[in-house]
Amino acid sequence: MTKPVKATAVTTTPTTSSTQRMTSRVRVRVGGAIERILARAPWIRTPWFGSTIVVGVALVARAPGYVRQLFDSDEAAIATMGMVLSRGGVLYRDVIDRKPPMAPFVYAASFLLTGTRDLRPLHLVAALGLGASAVVLAYGARRVAGASAGWWAAGLLIAGATAMRAVDAQAANFAHLALLPACGAIVAARTGTRRSAVLAGVLVGIATLTRQTWVIGVVPAAYAAWWWGGRRPGRAILVLCCTVATVASVAIVVPVAAFWHWTFAGNGSVLALGESQTIFERGAPVIEVFLLANIATCWLVAKRGWHRDDLDLWLWLATGLAAFLAGFRFFGHYWFQVLPPMCLLAGLGVAACPKSLRRMLVVVVLAPACAAWVLAFSPRLEARPKIRALANYARVHTKPGDLVTVWGAVPEVYWLSGRAPGGGLVTTDFVVGRTAGRRDGPARRRDATPGALASFLESLRADPPKLFLDTSTAGTRHYDHYPLTFIPAVAAFVHANYRRVATVRGVTVYELRHRRA
Q1: CB 99 within 8 Å of CB 80
Q2: 175, 188, 204, 484: least buried by Cβ within 10 Å?
Q3: What is the pTM for the complete model shown?
């Protein structure tokens, strides 16, 4: 009975040993092949080759944006501003939104260069920005922890920026366009030289002019410049002064008082912390999805642990979380202010992981990103038939120079029709106080932007639009809570100067009775 057992034992050992030897030979041969390739093509080791790979991956990650134009109504709002600017209009006077000016000027430049209002070139710009941001983070991580940390920081940023809903991941809005200067500010501030402190301040200013919440990034940037610059207070002061000077330079292209009002002073209602009873209901799903999609990044941040030299990155992360939570609006693309410091910390944490664990983490990182990428090719576009019908009506019944006013939150009509907004506002939310994430109704009146109604009426009276489209009668995007009578002065203006001529998909269309001399 014992002989078969012994025979089995004898035959198993050589088999296991031979498998190990075979595996070892394969590894040696593969390693030798790689070394021969690197010897024949040393350029593979160069930074520019790695940067090309990273940018190429980012371009692929944004591929859904090359076949579809509109992912987010924010894109339509920016496109409306860019359209007016490309025709010689003045921001915050001829076209107004409660946002900083950099994104509209980028859109205007694209429209002028391409001769169209196509948004796909903007999606390409956002893709290149994502790739460049990943390269910058890779450089910052590589300086501290080597090449592996750099690759991981870059990959985690691209994957994290892709593993979102299409409306957040594939659009080209304020958060996406602010990503590159924001990443540049982080890395530059950590370099520690006088020049890098100046550059960090300028980049924080550019990021602020693209998305205003990045203004709080001046705190960690100043600290990083001080800490890595030999604890010299002058480095922090340089960051602060250059940030202020960059933001103030906007006076060259837009009215500075109007810019300050619409970008900062008039945004108090957006940052209000009211209606706390719906915070969990609205915030929990967005936070859960982000954490699940970036579980590997979160784990690597924890693996990195506490290092005194990372305090600036933790401050960046804390300010990003503050910007995400401000106003409890919980939009997915708000995470773009959290991702850069988070991915940089995670890249630094890779050094503590064995290679076998890293291979498993690659799968954990890629799975949600790939799933989101596939789904992004068929996003759900709200009310598209109705919006297109309105835009077509406006285009057919007006001339290119005519103005059209939409009572509602449908800036897509302006972009699709090619008609500038009468009254200047890209959306009348600023007049009625409607704010995303808040319950609609009369209570919103207190959230109206100060001065918005006066500016709206003054512009309407000075240059009345040919058409006035009232989307409240169709309940488009909950505007049934905000009929014209919600603002009596606007209702009086419309009834005194317009006549009802049509109904398009439930939207009431008014036409100007006569043009004023």
Answers
A1: no
A2: 484
A3: 0.90
